[in-house]
């Protein structure tokens, strides 16, 4: 153990306080939090969900490590009651808090709250993922409205956790200044200086290495599709249900445009559209009566009200009951989801306007419109970024 | 034996062209019965490239608006941008093989382009033009 002098000649030793698993846990958890925050757009749902799974796994590990880990990692080392926290905060205000090698009382409560909030965020995330997207281990456990509620809860809990993270960072800053030590560096190296012969923890590098391997393996497994995709066969992280199909509908409607799945408009819209097939957006379709009937039956049976997909449910609830829309692009939900897309994208040679769902949605033909199944063609992306 | 196989293969490969000849001749007979005579590829080509002004929107339309002037190339739907397979049967053997399809597209596309249905004479001329491309 190295020795050095500080505070006017008092002999101090370097003590390893944070073992490798704790440091790995801390920084990976922080990264997950930031990554999940920056990938909350549907386009990056696969990344967001991975960050969530990783967060859940890390927190479960930390709970276990709180019982079997190194001396400073164990919960009994920082099981402070509320009055201890109060006293510590008072001392901080008086600028003379006692120094703890491990977690101080205020810090410990931040840890417990962060662990609890993190776990709650993971759980509500899984519920929303299963309810709204029909994906993950809890797929279909909740219906769409319940999934949406879980989603809102997920967001509120995130804001709470963000607030707590900020308080935690301020605590680190204040304690670092009052004790003239760099707590951030300690969390990186694991070492702190101590006067008396305080015990050092083992590095537990084998546990740390196992964690690292597990994280990398999980990442490779989760994102392998990105590595194997080709321009012809783009990677689609999530696959929706196989929707009802109909060959006549596909042939007739698909002759002039993408065969828009019935789930994208409500019954009243489809009925009106088939009614006025002689003036279908300026064109007389001249379909035979029998054909009209067969297609209409298929459209009505699988219309948006049936809630076959998340998009169907959200489109339907966004349209006022009194309105009979003929264009999917006029549904308020569609408008909201596409408001950030600039004119340059719609006018791009590879995008044939708003009618061309398949230009960016990999699963447009299937009709599922899954999150993270969006892929702007590369030169379209260039248009977007050059603006 | 080998010869027989070659012969059968050749016959199988020729089926689309027989189908095309069948569908076209059936419709030509029909259009003649309705008053069409002396169907001409030149007249068909001229009409194919002729421009019409749409009564409602005022835009100029012709068959080439969507199918382009080169019928061996794919076209593009004027409103939706969806790709249209080439019209020329030599490039796209599926063309002019189904009576039902030909009828449907004549009605729909004549109405959009000319603003009215085509006469039997015009339809016969179109077929005369398209079938030998």
Give structural attributes.
heterodimer; A: 387 residues; mainly alpha; Fumarate Reductase Cytochrome B subunit; 2 domains; 3-stranded antiparallel sheet; 14 helices; 53% helix; B: 133 residues; Cytochrome Bc1 Complex, Chain D, domain 2; two-stranded antiparallel ribbon; two-stranded antiparallel sheet; 4 strands; globular
Explain the overall architecture.
- The complex is a heterodimer of chains A (387) and B (133).
- Chain A has 387 residues and is mainly alpha-helical.
- Chain A has helices at 20-38, 45-68, 82-93, 105-132, 144-178, 183-189, 205-228, 247-253, 267-275, 289-301, 310-318, 332-338, 343-346, 378-385; strands spanning 3-6, 10-16, 191-194.
- Chain A folds into 2 domains: 3-228, Transmembrane di-heme cytochromes, Chain C (Fumarate Reductase Cytochrome B subunit), CATH 1.20.950; 247-385, no CATH class.
- Helices cover 53% and strands 4% of the residues of chain A.
- In chain A, α9 (267-275) runs antiparallel to α10.
- In chain B, strands 1-2 form a two-stranded antiparallel sheet.
- In chain B, β3 and β4 (83-84) form a beta hairpin.
- The radius of gyration of chain B is 17 Å and the shape is globular.
- The termini of chain B are far apart.
- Classes of the chains: A mainly alpha (387), B mainly alpha (133).
- Chain A binds chain B through residues 256-258, 281-286, 352-353, 355-356, and chain B through 56-57, 77, 79-82, 104, 107-108, 111-112.
């Amino acid at each position: 153990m190295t020795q050095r002098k500080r505070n006017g000649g008092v002999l101090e030793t370097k003590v390893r306080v944070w073992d490798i698993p704790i440091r790995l846990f801390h920084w990976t958890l922080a990264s997950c939090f930031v990554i999940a925050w920056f990938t909350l757009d549907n386009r990056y749902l696969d990344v967001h969900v991975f960050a969530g799974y990783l967060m859940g796994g890390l927190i479960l590990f930390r709970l276990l490590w709180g019982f079997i880990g190194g001396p400073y990692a164990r919960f009994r080392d920082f099981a402070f009651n509320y009055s201890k926290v109060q006293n510590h905060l008072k001392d901080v205000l008086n600028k003379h808090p006692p120094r703890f090698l491990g977690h101080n009382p205020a810090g410990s409560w931040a840890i417990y709250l962060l662990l609890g909030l993190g776990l709650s965020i993971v759980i509500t995330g899984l519920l929303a993922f299963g309810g709204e997207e029909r994906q993950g281990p809890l797929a279909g456990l909740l219906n769409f409205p319940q999934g949406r509620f879980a989603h809102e809860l997920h967001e509120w809990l995130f804001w709470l956790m963000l607030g707590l993270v900020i308080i935690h960072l301020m605590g680190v800053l204040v304690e670092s200044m009052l004790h003239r030590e760099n707590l951030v560096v300690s969390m990186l190296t694991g070492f702190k200086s101590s006067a008396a012969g305080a015990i050092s923890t083992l590095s537990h590098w084998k546990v740390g290495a196992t964690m690292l391997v597990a994280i990398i393996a999980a990442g490779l497994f989760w994102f392998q599709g990105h590595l194997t995709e080709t321009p012809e066969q783009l990677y689609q992280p999530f696959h929706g249900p196989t929707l009802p199909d109909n060959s006549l509908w596909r042939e007739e409607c698909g002759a002039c445009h993408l065969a828009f799945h019935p789930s994208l408009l409500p019954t009243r819209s489809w009925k009106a559209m088939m009614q006025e097939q002689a003036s279908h957006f300026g064109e007389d379709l001249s379909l035979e009566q029998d054909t009209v009937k067969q297609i209409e039956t298929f459209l009505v049976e699988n219309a948006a009200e049936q809630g076959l997909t998340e998009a169907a449910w959200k489109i339907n609830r966004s349209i006022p009951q009194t309105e009979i829309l003929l264009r999917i692009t006029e549904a308020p939900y569609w408008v909201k989801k596409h408001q950030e897309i600039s004119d340059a994208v719609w006018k791009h040679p590879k995008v044939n306007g708003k009618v061309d769902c398949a230009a960016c949605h990999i699963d447009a033909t299937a009709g599922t419109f899954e999150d993270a199944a969006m892929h702007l063609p590369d030169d379209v992306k260039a248009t977007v970024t050059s603006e | 034996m080998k010869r027989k196989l070659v012969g059968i293969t050749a016959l199988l490969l020729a089926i689309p062209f027989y189908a095309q000849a069948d569908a076209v001749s059936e419709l030509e007979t029909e259009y003649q019965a309705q008053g069409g005579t002396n169907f001409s590829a030149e007249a068909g080509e001229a009409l194919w490239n002729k421009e019409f002004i749409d009564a409602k929107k005022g835009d100029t339309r012709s068959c080439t608006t969507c199918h382009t002037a080169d019928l061996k190339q794919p076209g593009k739907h004027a409103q939706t941008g969806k790709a249209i397979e080439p019209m020329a049967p030599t490039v796209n053997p599926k063309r002019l093989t189904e009576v039902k399809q030909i009828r449907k597209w004549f009605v729909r596309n004549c109405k959009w382009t000319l603003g009215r249905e085509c006469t039997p004479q015009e339809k016969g001329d179109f077929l005369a033009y398209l079938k030998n491309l």
